[in-house]
């Protein structure tokens, strides 16, 4: 369901056609990843996260389940609301218009609800306790750019491997292959709405949902609330990162993207724990989504 409101997907047009933007960024990410790996070998304590400060909170896991249920209700209610103005069969312009507006509406409302919950349950408030601060924005921005570049080739490699495995397993069932390897709804909307009279406005709406609102709302929920709550309960940062990343990947319905999203979630969670701030994770997530949207636009698809 969240895959309709976010676009953190590595969906190239084919196994080898990554587009000019990715062909430049992937080698850079590989080089940065090698440097990072050698640095972590030299300083392994930074990987264990044992010395990173916790984020005291009173957030009960049941609240997280309630929030997930509320998210589903928001999606259904918003979809019904916008269907009164925009409607049509699957993959029609009206269908994608409804999807884009629903995505923006749900993300705004869910973000506001999650922030309200965090403000009440985190002992030291949203900035100091929750990590929603721009106090070190220069460092966090640079860290986010580097981490995104490192994550990029890993996620693309996992996506292509998963894509190849699905094609091998379902070689005799093209319809199943298409179902399991379809692009996220917002990526499809970019193409489907390109010929409308107000195409630029719809393109802005897609970018807003995928590059601005989805990173904000999903990082606030998955990293800020879920990961912090699990760390509070287990006392183990990596257990919290892995579980939150698994939920993050599972909530995106495209099977072909889940291994890549799991890896992305680990990168996002690690950076949240290392800094105690959400901004690095938000920057990574936003740039990641923006990269694939820009890559598709450059390809003229």
TrEMBL record:
Alphabetical list of Pfam families matching this protein: Rce1-like (PF02517)
GO function terms (MF aspect): endopeptidase activity
CAAX prenyl protease 2/Lysostaphin resistance protein A-like domain residues: 202-290
GO biological process: CAAX-box protein maturation
Coiled coil: none
Residue stretches spanning the membrane: 20-38, 59-81, 101-120, 141-170, 201-226, 238-257, 277-298
Record's keyword terms, sorted: Membrane, Transmembrane, Transmembrane helix
Protein's UniProt name: CAAX prenyl protease 2/Lysostaphin resistance protein A-like domain-containing protein
Species: marine sediment metagenome
